[in-house]
Design brief:
The longest helix has 17 residues. The chain is about 30% helix and about 20% strand. The chain is α+β, with helices and mostly antiparallel strands. The protein contains 17 helices and 17 strands. The strands form 5 sheets. It has a 5-stranded mixed beta sheet with strand order 13-12-14-11-15. It has a 4-stranded mixed beta sheet with strand order 1-10-9-8, with helices on one face. A 4-stranded antiparallel beta sheet has the order 4-5-7-6, covered by helices on one side.
């Protein structure tokens, strides 16, 4: 089997391959069949915190702007117009204006206008009468004062201060525009968008179906007649069905390295790409309640980790060690390796780290004759359960006896958002490879997705300083210092950053795997079936 590096090169060259195929002439029609890893909590992208929602429902919507769907590495340079035709910053960088497309219709036939943009962001900022039940990315828009329509087809985002990353946040798959005339409750069960596919049905624990939007504003798109997702939580069962030809593609970035080998052994023609997905596996601790309100115990947790063992067991060595930001080369903001290795717990001598951890546990009152008993809570899907089992085993080395507490997807994010846990194994997907998204969403004091109650006003001031910096190299150095401090504070100990696989049948054309976010590449308007 080819190395991750070789497969990543396949991903990065996917655009060129796709371009040749499309130039030869796309075919219209067909239902794109994908298995889904679990049943999403709802159909509302803005209210959910998992790409289990993005993957099936991103094709229903458009953004103002979007990352180009056939460029694997997201960056400011790969952002293109979507519902906005163009954009411009004011001279003081405190206002971002968009000129909007005219003639675009919602799936129910009503016209799209600037008022829909205002309604969407007023709800995200908590300013509207109608409220989202959950609002996990409210922190993205803390610097937005207001969103002001200028007629029906222009809108301006006015900011408290310059925030160059705002455009990157608006391009995420997590930032669709919602219609003013459809309530948040309706969007959870029957979403209405302007995108290439219209919602048909969502049967919990069974399937999700979309159909082609014949009135899509991009003429000639989409190529497919529809998309059908069949929910199969068992990975091995899903892979067997893919190999048997029942599905055209696996659930994106969900094929583990060992399962990838099985696919290639049983179906040599399958096209498989391994890539980083900007999802970190990490420990979350409820730092506001005993016993983890004790900093020594939290530091002991971080020192107990044998990161290479996790990667060897789960990825056959094909994953990355890093801080909060995605490691290089896929990540654009990664801390240098030599800086990372100065952080306690990241050094290569695991035994020495654990000896230090045991001393901290003894200081906190635990030892060989008095173990700390806890539950490790985690989401009930393999990418969470498997590392949680390894974590439980590693914690035994520092006098912690833990039991596994598995929680279904629909209940997982609400549970940890209300801090109803002591210790957890979580996956944090970063929707954008940008520090503003990662820092404010996961570590700012008031964020709904700050699951650990970590709150450091001094470091939050540093968030603001890096956010305003327009010189990329200067900003990187600020970001590295912040990332280092977050690890030293044991804010949310990062175990590893995943590399995972996506496979599709050779007749599927137009698929591109993103290498620095698993949240932004699922519009599927350019996908077609050559059969």
């Amino acid at each position: 089997m080819r190395s991750v590096q070789a497969l990543a090169i396949v991903a990065l060259s996917a655009l060129a391959v796709t371009g040749v195929a499309q130039a030869a002439g796309e075919k219209q029609g067909g239902i794109f069949r994908i298995y889904h890893r679990d049943s999403p909590g709802s159909a509302s992208i803005h209210e959910e915190a998992t790409y289990s929602t993005n993957v099936p429902f991103m094709p229903v919507f458009n953004n103002l702007v979007i990352y180009k769907q056939d460029v694997p590495q997201n960056s400011i340079e790969s952002i293109v117009p979507d519902l906005a035709e163009s954009w411009a910053w004011s001279s003081d960088k405190k206002s971002l204006s968009f000129k909007l497309r005219q003639g675009v219709k919602w799936h129910d036939g009503k016209p799209f206008t600037a008022n829909d943009v205002k309604c969407t962001f007023d709800m995200l900022m908590g300013k509207s009468q109608q409220k989202f039940r959950k609002n996990p990315r409210k922190s993205w828009y803390e610097e937005v004062v207001d969103v002001v329509p200028k007629g029906d087809f222009e809108v301006a985002f006015n900011l408290k201060r310059p925030q160059p990353a705002l455009l990157a946040l608006l391009a995420s798959g997590y930032t669709p525009i919602y219609p003013c005339h459809v309530s948040p409750a309706e969007m959870r069960t029957h979403p209405i968008g302007t995108g290439p596919f219209k919602f048909v049905e969502f049967k919990a624990n069974e399937s999700i179906k979309l159909t082609r939007n014949p009135d899509y504003w991009k003429k000639g798109l989409p190529h497919l007649d529809g998309i059908e997702f069949t929910i199969i939580p068992n990975r091995s069962t899903a892979i067997l069905a893919f190999v048997a030809g029942k599905f055209d593609m696996t659930f994106p970035t969900e094929v583990s390295i060992p399962l990838l080998k099985d696919v290639k052994t049983q179906d040599a023609k399958a096209v498989c790409v391994v890539a980083p997905n900007n999802v970190s596996t990490n420990i979350i601790v409820n730092s506001s309640s005993p016993p983890f309100d004790n900093l020594d115990i939290r530091r002991a947790l971080a020192l107990a980790l044998d990161r290479k063992a996790f990667i060897s067991i789960l990825f056959e060595g094909q994953a990355d060690i890093g801080g909060t930001m995605l490691p290089a080369p896929a990540g654009l903001w990664a801390m240098p390796k030599e800086m990372l290795e100065t952080i306690p717990g990241y050094g290569p001598d695991v035994n020495a780290n654990r000896e230090q951890a045991r001393k901290l546990m003894q200081k906190a009152g635990y030892g060989p004759d008095k173990h700390l008993t806890v539950k490790v809570s985690t989401r009930n899907i393999p990418v969470y359960r498997d590392p949680a089992v390894i974590l439980i085993d590693q914690l035994k080395s520092i006098y912690i006896d833990a039991d596994l507490d598995v929680v279904e997807t629909a209940n997982w994010f609400p549970k940890i958002a209300r801090k109803d846990y002591a210790l957890g194994l979580n996956l944090t997907g970063n929707a954008v490879d940008d520090p503003d998204q990662s820092f404010y969403e996961n570590y700012s004091c008031k964020s709904e997705r700050n699951y650990t109650n970590y709150c450091n006003p001094e470091i939050e001031k540093m968030f603001d300083v890096q956010s305003q910096e327009t010189d990329v190299e200067k900003r990187k150095k600020l970001v590295w210092e912040i990332d280092k401090k977050l690890q030293e504070d044991v804010a949310r100990p990062i175990i590893y950053h995943s590399r995972t696989g996506t496979c599709w049948q050779p007749y599927v054309k137009g698929v591109t795997v993103m290498v620095n976010s698993s949240y932004n590449g699922y519009r599927y308007e350019d996908v077609w079936l050559d059969k």
